[in-house]
Write a structure and sequence with these properties.
Layout lengths: L1 E4 L4 E6 L4 E6 L2 E5 L5 E12 L5 E7 L10 E7 L8 E6 L3 E6 L4 E6 L21 H4 L1 H8 L3 H8 L1
Antiparallel strand pairs: 1-2, 2-3, 3-5, 4-5, 5-6, 6-7, 7-8, 8-9, 9-10
GO molecular function: sterol binding
Organism: Panurus biarmicus
Protein name: OSBL9 protein
Length: 157
């Protein structure tokens, strides 16, 4: 598959084997520094495929100030032209998510900790245009890796 990101908060994932194009939106990122610092995702997102008509609504829940868990997610998956979901998902977006189907079946939807890591395929820097992401940010990335924040900040400017 291929992944394309646009400057707007919309992306397109193409499943080449099935000639399906999924348009998706992204959650917001939030940072908290009041107690132990953490970054979390929050907000509503969607995924839809014009070819099949399937779509999903996803909510990334932010952690309440007192109690509650981080990284919670809920989602509903819809068949074409249906107003009721055939599957509801809940769990942690960076852990285990559980599915409950309209048939009553409950199962593990996905366990992200058991997923294999797939190395990205990226063109060599010398083959990239000046404004392609890795080429444009190479000095920032390098300086962050060597923990030179001042040089990274200068490169960012």
């Amino acid at each position: 598959f291929e992944i394309h990101f646009y400057f707007s908060p919309t992306g397109c994932v193409t499943c080449l084997d099935h000639d399906e194009h999924y348009i998706l939106t992204f959650p917001n990122g939030y940072g908290s520094i009041l107690t132990v610092p953490w970054i979390e995702l929050g907000g509503e997102c969607s995924i839809s495929c014009s070819k099949t008509g399937y779509n999903a609504s996803i909510v990334f829940h932010t952690k309440p100030f007192y109690g509650g868990k981080k990284h919670r997610i809920t989602a509903e998956i819809f068949s074409p032209n249906d107003k009721k979901p055939f599957c509801s998902i809940e769990g942690e977006w960076n852990g285990v998510m559980y599915a409950k189907y309209s048939t009553g079946e409950n199962t593990v939807f996905i366990d992200t900790k058991k997923m294999p890591t797939i190395k990205k395929k990226v063109r060599k820097l010398e083959d990239q245009d000046d404004f392609e992401s890795r080429c444009l940010w190479k000095d920032v990335t390098y300086n962050l890796k060597i923990r030179d924040i001042d040089a990274a900040t200068a490169a960012k400017h």
